[in-house]
Amino acid sequence: MNSKRIRTTVIAGIGALGVLSMSACAADTKSGGGGDDKVVLAEPSWVGASANAAVVKKLMEDELDVKVEAKQMDEPVAFDALDSGKADAILEDWHGVPKKQKKYVEEKKTVVSGGDLGVVGHIGWFVPKYYADKNPDVVKDYKNLNKHYKDFKTSESGDLGHFIGAAPSYSQHDKELIKNLGMKFKHIPSGAEAAQLKELKRLYDAKKPFLTYWWEPQWMNNQIDMVEVKLPKYTKGCEIPASKAKCGYETNQLEKFMNKDFADSDSDAAKFIKNFKWTTKDQNTVAEMIAGKKMDPEDAAEKWIKDNKSTWEKWIPKKK
Fold first, then answer.
1. Which of 33, 44, 120, 207 is deepest in the core (most CB within 10 A)?
2. Contact criterion met (CB below 8 Å) for 101 and 95
3. DSSP for 30-81?
4. What is the pTM of this model?
5. pLDDT (tens digit, 9 = 90+) per residue, 247-290?
6. Do 170 and 10 form a contact (C-beta atoms < 8 A)?
7. How far is CA 35 from the centre of its chain?
8. Whole-Å CA distances, 18 to 36, 154, 300
C-alpha cells in the first residue's frame, strides 16, 4: 500500500485490508455461525484488501451462514471503528497508523491482535528492470539517483525528476524523504492505486524510465519486472515524525486486529477471522483476477475457493 503500503490504507491491500463490523444487536448471537449474525466487511482502497475481503465474505456467507456487507474504509477510520465497536476486525494492517494503534491497542486495550495474515508486506522505491540493467548504480545506492535525475523529468516535474507517489491514504514518507535526503526529485501523488498502476503499465510498455513508490504484495508484479533502489536502512521509529524521516521502509508481517469484545465472543465469525491466513501468492492470485482480469470480486473469490479447498477448510471453526 502499500504509504507503507499498502500494500491491502493495504492496510488487502494492504494492500488489501478488510474490516469486519458486527451490529450491537448481534451480541446475543455470538455463539457463532447463526443466520442472525451481521458482519460488515470494510475494505481499504488497495486491491489486496479487496482480495482479502472477497474471499472472507464468500466463505463466511457460504460456510458459516453469516450475513456480510462490504464497505470502503481506510485504516485510520477502521481503527476508530474497531475502538467504538462499529467494526470487528481489520484483516490487513500495514502499521500505517501507529498513533491510533498505541491509543487503542496499548492504552485503551479496546483493540487486540487477531494474528498474522500470512502475507509479508514491503514498500520501497523501485525502477523498472530494463532501466536498472542499463544503470546498475541507481539501485545500489539512492544517492546515485541524483546523477540520473534528468532521465526522470516530465512536464509535471519541471526541472526535477518525477517521483511517482502513492495514493494519499497509503502509509508513506516519500515527500519528506526526498527533501531530507536532498534528492533532485519532485514527489507527485498518483491519486489512486488504479491510476498509478495504469500509468506504470503505460511507461513500462513504452520502456520509459520511472521512479516510483512500490510494494509487495502487488498483483502487477506478475506482469512487470521491478528492481528496488537501496535506501537508508530502516530502524524502528526512524520515520516518526515523518518530517524528519531519513530512512526507508519496514518489512512487515501483515497483521489482523480485532475489536476486543468481538475477539472474546467465541463466535464462529471471530474464530474464522483468527484462523484466516494465506500467502502473498494467494492474495496476488485473487487480486490479479479482480484488477488485472476485471473479474467481479465474488467471482474471483469463488474461483480461488474452488481451487484451494485444502487451504481454506483449515479456517472453518471445528464443530464442538
1. 44
2. yes
3. TTSS-TT-EEEEEE-SSHHHHHHHHHHHHHHHHHS--EEEEEE--HHHHHHH
4. 0.74
5. 999 998 899 999 999 999 988 999 999 999 999 999 999 999 99
6. yes
7. 30
8. 21, 36, 16
